[in-house]
Amino acid sequence: xxxxxxxxxxxxxxxxLSSAMAGNAGTASDxxxxxxxxxxxxxxxxxxxxxxxxxxALQAVYDExxxxxxxxxxxxxxxxxxxxxxxxxxxxxxYVTGITGTSFMLLSGKGEVLVSSxxxxxxxxxxxxxxxxxxxxxQRYFCAENTSADFKVSDTxxxxxxxxxxxxxxSATDDxxxxxxxxxxxxDAVYWALRQGITTGDSETTFGPDKSCTRAQVVTFLxxxxxxxxxxxxxxxxxxxxxxxxYAAVMWAVKNGITNGxxxTTFGPDKSCTRAQIVTFLxxFSGSPKPSGSxxxxxxxxxxxxxxDAVLWAVKEGITKGDSDTTFAPDKPCTRAQTxxxxxxxxx
Length: 348
Prior knowledge:
Blueprint: H1 2-23, H2 35-67, E1 80-90, E2 95-99, E3 103-108, E4 111-117, E5 120-122, E6 127-129, E7 140-143, E8 148-153, E9 157-168, H3 187-195, H4 215-225, H5 247-255, H6 275-285, H7 308-316, H8 336-347
Antiparallel strand pairs: 1-9, 2-8, 2-9, 3-7, 3-9, 4-8, 5-6, 5-7
Helix pairs in contact: 1-2, 3-8, 4-5, 4-6, 4-8, 6-7
């Protein structure tokens, strides 16, 4: 868009110039203005001037947006605040979490943006950035209203941030979350998932182990565990739009046969993922192996259910032992702790 606007401006000025020249033109051997002057000086200067005006207009839009977002350094649990750009040294795997009003710039290294909710804008182009997109060097990324996003680096990097932010180290220490105690069954799984970039906490200091996992969150965890591949194909779901953080994950899951959705046209992203659904997702993710020689220990898992093979496979592989010795509780919502534990037992 910038180039088109600049080229249009150059064309208008050239048209005016040619009109003036036509009224008082020189001869072919003695031109009033040489072609080399037009090619080497006039056009570059005109394009540069147009570019500067476009950049100025974009900056004005950005500044106006920032004015509408509360800041001022008021305390927010788990976040630091800086009123001007602060340079951060980032180790491989580290990420900077931004919320509404945060701006981030990658100064060196490589990284990507992972949008949990809302919209991230590349201020340099005015374009919305999709979750999973690579970060361009020295481009300003702005978290718009109601946004939470992670700017994750893949090697030793430098980044600059302004407004509210939180930094999580790539090699997270095993004391990051106050609600994940060493004696809990999910302790190792949580910190494994954190280091692998599969999930972040519920906040900077809590994981929320007992909270239910939504269907969108579960497929996103799986997608990240698979390396966040770029999806292809059509979107069959009316309740999954391209601006959602889980869009790529859902499209990938559908393409790879991990889920067929809640119906032919809906995915139900905000619904709690049941224990039956998550073991089925994991089973399909693993290639839908037949659980040969496995006895069914559960009275609430009938052979006609879609999750029957998945449950028996999960038990055989040590992914789950059930809700009790004789029940699996297939319709029970799966918690965040259970979800990362299942993933850990399958992939770690």
